[in-house]
Amino acid sequence: MSDQSYNYQSLSTEELYQSLATRQTGLYNEEVSQRQSQYGKNLLASGKQESKLLKFLKNFTSLMAILLWVGGLVAILSGTFELGIAIWLVNVINGVFSFIQENRAQKATEALKNMLPSYARVVRDGIEQKILAEDLVPGDILLIEEGDKISADARIILSTDLQVNQSALTGESNPVRKNAKVVTDSDVTALEADNLVFAGTTVANGSARVAVTKIAMQTEFGKIADLTQTVADEKSPL
């Protein structure tokens, strides 16, 4: 079964199948159902869904914001009118800034979602079929070819002239050549491994049969999405 501790690039094909509890002919339908219950959907988390008005108002009702409102009122009542107004202005500016930051992070997450495909081709129980990409599970045998967006992190089993555009993850402008050879160098990271492909990247040339290792927020792409949401949750220190 899929495990975060596995160094998938260094496994032989048989070891890979064993670690993912899968096989060349793919998962059985019963196994797919069990893993969907265990791992959930292959979707990027959206974070809290709230109206823009509610999000905006929440920036002015946090503990720090309330303290600033009270501090401004105390300053005004004590006769330092200018200081009180200045404190309130700081509170307003801080709230507006936080709201804008949250909106930008939400838009970034939505943009990342749009980079993932809606459908995927897999082999299950020996039969090639088209499924919703959100229904992929670790251990699925995924088929990819030129022009395809890749919907999960996976280890290459077989490939033909495969090149993948990884710019969404690494910033590299040129496609990277990929193959099924075992990586023996322990210093090679996952993103550097020639036998791994990743969600959010695109097949620039060739084709391959790959075994899905990670889905959803566990993928390298999911980690980027998580960072954007973390930025949205961070509040200004003012």
Structure notes:
The protein has 238 residues and is of the alpha+beta class. It has 2 domains: 8-44 and 118-232, Calcium-transporting ATPase, cytoplasmic transduction domain A; 52-115. The chain is built from 7 helices and 7 strands, in the order αααααββββαβββα. The protein has helices at 13-20, 29-39, 52-58, 63-77, 81-114, 167-170, 220-233; strands spanning 119-124, 127-132, 141-145, 153-165, 176-177, 196-197, 202-214. Strands 1, 2, 3, 4, 5, 6 and 7 form a 7-stranded antiparallel beta sheet that branches. Strand 1 and strand 2 form a beta hairpin. Helix 4 (63-77) packs antiparallel against helix 5 (81-114) and helix 5 runs antiparallel to helix 7 (220-233). The longest helix is centred in the middle third of the chain and has 34 residues, at 81-114. The chain starts with 12 loop residues before the first helix and ends in a 5-residue tail after the last helix.
Our count of domains comes out at 2
According to CATH, what is the topology of the largest domain?
Answer: Calcium-transporting ATPase, cytoplasmic transduction domain A
**How many beta-strand runs?**
7
User: Approximately how much helix is present in the residues?
Assistant: 25-40%
Give the terminus-to-terminus CA distance: 47 Å
The largest β sheet comes out as: 7 strands, antiparallel
Transmembrane segments: 56-77
Subcellular location: Cell membrane
Membrane topology: Multi-pass membrane protein
Family: Belongs to the cation transport ATPase (P-type) (TC 3.A.3) family. Type IIA subfamily.
